[in-house]
Amino acid sequence: RKQYFVYFVQASYLKDLHMAKNKEKKAGKRMKKKDLVNILMNFFHSKPTEALSLKFIFSELKMTTHPLKMLCIDILNELRDGDYITEVDKNKFRLNDHGKELTGTFQRKSNGKNSFIPDEGGDPIFIAERNSAHAMNNDKVKIVFYAKRKNHDAEGEVVEILERANDTFVGTLEVANSYAFLVTENRTLANDIFIPKEKLKGGKTGDKAVVKIVEWPDKAKNPIGQVIDILGKAGDNTTEMHAILAEFGLPYVYPEAVEKAADKIPAEISEEEIARREDFRKVTTFTIDPKDAKDFDDALSIRSIKEGLWEVGVHIADVTHYVQEGSIIDKEAEKRATSVYLVDRTIPMLPERLCNFICSLRPNEEKLSYSVIFDITEKGEVKNSRIVHTVINSDRRFTYEEAQQIIETKEGDFKEEVLMLDKIAKALRDKRFSSGAINFDRYEVKFEIDDKGKPVSVYFKESKDANKLVEEFMLLANKTVAEEIGKVPRNKKAKVFPYRIHDLPDPEKLDNLAQFIARFGYKLRTSGTKSDVSKSINHLLDDIQGKKEENLIETVSIRAMQKARYSTHNIGHYGLAFEYYTHFTSPIRRFPDMMVHRLLTKYAEGGRSVLESKYEDLCEHSSNMEQIAANAERASIKYKQVEFMSERLGQIFDGVISGVTEWGLYVELNENKCEGMIPMRDLDDDYYEFDEKNYCLRGRRKNRMYSLGDAITVKVARANLEKKQLDFALVEEKR
């Protein structure tokens, strides 16, 4: 077939050429440009994989006259500029790959400026709404690429939807007599969803609902949907939190069958199981967690070995002892991949019986754990370590505040043990930073919520010594576990294992950061060894401590960093300055930790390496779910910020410009760190242009500038809970 097609195209272009030449002879004129364009395009299609030289084209197409050759060269240059052909070498051309169908991801925009991201990389391709075939955001699609018109963006048309990314949407119902609409605030859907009355599932006007699109007829403006679930009345706290979860495709209820399976798991520990484990029940052990925590993943034990040498145990809940691989509980945990922490609630990865009761390392209860035991000096030097299954009995449950009190006052329960752990942790921390770890030490904004879920006040959660104590021992345990599997002799291949990896910063973003901080009088090294750059970043973070620009520069610095993720291909963890790092310490709330526990056990028992592709897919899924959970968490914070500020309309606040975009200025308030926007339309004293490189808006006539980091005074103008959007108005002041 292919050969026949090539033969047909060759015959076609020779026939076209012959007819065009005869026409030219009869008319006594030069060949028309349009005719030669068709001939050349057909010629390239007849040899789609070959690079064709100018000489070869002239010869094959019998172009003997000078005017014809000149016209041919002009057309070839136009086809090249239009992205139809590629100049692979001087005067050597090949049909562009875009001449074929492409597969990739469709990205829908509510303004109709949809785009297509090719799987094989390259620039996005514009897809007009009329050519979208009603593809939804993030659908896998096949497109036909149009030849690029002069002074126009590359353009294509969706010819097939290969895989739907999402066909459910969250919004508010508007119900009429015989039909209804779901009004969404989704920025990727331009039109509301039409719902026939029989598909309403009892929904009423003002209800928040989850709706599945079942059809989108070719000529119809609106997709047709059916109600999957009614979440409750819009504005109700639980309704809105469930709506956020549903919006991100996250579950908001726990499957009954999984809960029932968990209820059948016995909590009692047999004597046979205890006999198989190292017994730490008589060793001083305690947990340190947030005051509202119920799922205690980790505990620390400590006892003296001899003068200056201590045995420290990092004990982690042995979740995989209870959750068998492939079980209904395991499959649900794999799908969720992480617990989700919204402002006022936790959506757990595991059923409550496991995460808050059986597996949780609660005080004065015998618990099974998987432990990393260190023989360590007061200076943080690890003399020996081992990874073993244990049984423990925690003596005390500390909140971070209680442990911090002991560190500060040197008084309280188990003060000698807490103070020694703090001393060792500080030594470990110093060593880590001297090796080039980056010290991002940011505070978190938290809300005090009343019993109806309403935010009543804002407070800032800072990482103090007690938090850092726990963090250092968790980091040490994770690093030790990763080294146990990953660190092998040169001639040996490490077994497949999930690592937590973090790549070097993006060089371009690092250069932009250096230019940005120069405006505040700071310098940053952007080249040299990994350690040189990280030490320079740390020096910057030290310099900005306590300055008004501290939070802003930290935010921009974090944006220059890559995201940490899971992978079986270890490249080390740049931010922590570790060559080997994994996640072992939180199996109650993270699926990768469960994978690590299982593989550690398997390999310790002499098991063979597992299939890399399977675990790489699980790593990628876990990384994606982690990002989705973080986005949902941010959306819940944003909702509470807008709700909190909606009672402060008209009030004036000082703030700082925290973001600059072509559609306006983002401003973070100093008092409560709530962020809102001054829309571009409200900056009506001039025509402002967006300078992306210098993070600023500049007025064309008056040359007034609004730059990232500028102090600014604003008034709370609008608070739209549905859109989670806070608008500020500029308060004029002398600048």
In short:
With 735 residues, the chain is an alpha+beta fold. The chain has 18 helices and 34 strands. The termini are far apart.
Task: Please characterize this protein's 3D structure.
With 735 residues, this protein is of the alpha+beta class. Strands 14-21-20-17-16-15-22 form a 7-stranded mixed sheet. It has a 5-stranded antiparallel sheet with strand order 6-5-4-7-8, with no helix packed on it. A hairpin with a 5-residue loop joins strand 28 (664-669) and strand 29 (675-679). The chain is globular, with a radius of gyration of 32 Å.
Secondary structure blueprint with pairings:
Blueprint: H1 2-27, H2 33-46, E1 52-53, H3 54-60, H4 66-81, E2 85-89, E3 92-95, E4 101-107, E5 114-118, E6 125-127, E7 140-145, E8 156-163, E9 168-175, E10 179-184, E11 193-196, E12 207-215, E13 224-233, H5 237-247, H6 256-263, H7 271-275, E14 278-279, E15 285-289, E16 298-306, E17 309-317, H8 319-322, H9 328-336, E18 340-341, E19 346-347, H10 352-358, E20 366-377, E21 382-393, E22 396-399, H11 400-409, H12 415-434, E23 444-449, E24 455-461, H13 465-486, E25 499-501, H14 507-518, H15 530-543, H16 550-560, E26 565-567, H17 591-604, H18 612-645, E27 652-661, E28 664-669, E29 675-679, E30 688-691, E31 696-699, E32 705-707, E33 711-720, E34 725-730
Parallel strand pairs: 14-21, 15-22
Antiparallel strand pairs: 1-3, 2-3, 4-5, 4-7, 5-6, 7-8, 9-10, 9-12, 10-11, 12-13, 15-16, 16-17, 17-20, 18-19, 20-21, 23-24, 25-26, 27-28, 27-33, 28-29, 30-31, 31-32, 33-34
Helix pairs in contact: 1-2, 2-4, 12-13, 14-16
